[in-house]
Amino acid sequence: MQQTFYKYQGTGNDFVMIDNRQQTFDKNNTKLVSALCDRRFGIGADGLILLEHHDNLDFKMVYYNADGNESSMCGNGGRCLVAFAKQLGVIDDKAVFEAIDGLHHAIIDGDIVKLQMVDVDTIEKHENHVFLDTGSPHHVQFENRIDVFDIKKEGSRIRYGEPYNEAGSNVNFVKKVSDQIFTVRTYERGVENETLSCGTGATAVALAMHAINETTDNLITLQVPGGELQVSFEVENGLYKNVWLIGAAKLVFKGVI
Ligand SMILES: N[C@@H](CCC[C@H](N)C(=O)O)C(=O)O
Fold this sequence. Notes:
Blueprint: E1 4-10, E2 13-19, H1 30-37, E3 47-52, E4 59-65, H2 75-88, E5 94-99, E6 102-109, E7 112-116, E8 123-125, E9 130-133, E10 137-142, H3 151-160, E11 170-176, E12 181-188, E13 193-195, H4 199-211, E14 219-224, E15 227-236, E16 239-248, E17 250-256
Parallel strand pairs: 2-3, 4-5, 10-11, 12-14
Antiparallel strand pairs: 1-2, 1-17, 3-4, 5-6, 6-7, 7-16, 8-9, 9-10, 11-12, 12-13, 14-15, 15-16
Bound molecules: the ligand N[C@@H](CCC[C@H](N)C(=O)O)C(=O)O.
């Protein structure tokens, strides 16, 4: 059977999108997902996302990393899925959908998609890094040589090392530009390499920088290799809430396999 797919990108974090409202996609086929995401033998992407029917909400998101395994939340993928839902006519300019970490609200205006992320109440502050879960697990640490740093080598060492081991964590390296602007490069678990952007990672960096008093702002710009993201939030008694991830999400091409 032929399968129509769409390729989307959000600040360079790219995804194969499939409309699976009719449940035609072979969801447990890890090899198929990784083959479609392969950059030489497949379409090429950091992940694959299924848009599925939901009884009460606009749609459901099912996210797979490029290695073919279903994973935790993908912020850029969620933003791209909202743009895809709009293109399919499933939504107009607002959406409420279910993902693995719960309900998400979103607003779309042209290419810009604002996605509400989960509230965060636990931010672990360690001597050299911060760890938090923004829908996906994120290790955040400063790296002033960020432009020349070997993200894949060091990211992989941290991702597979203690305390994360096989289950792993995404790893974000950060350089402060100003109180409102941070440069970020992310090693993504499940891609096992640096990606051009990571939405849950950008969110994690913004909250972490606030939690360790590197900023007092609640609208942070994150410069990532694929462009710019913004994260806004409110804090109440240590709870980060009303967290929004904001940035462009665009269709790259459509095809049939
Ligand atoms: N690209 C992502 C994060 C995707 C999930 C991650 N690879 C993991 O397994 O934790 C994003 O934009 O948030």
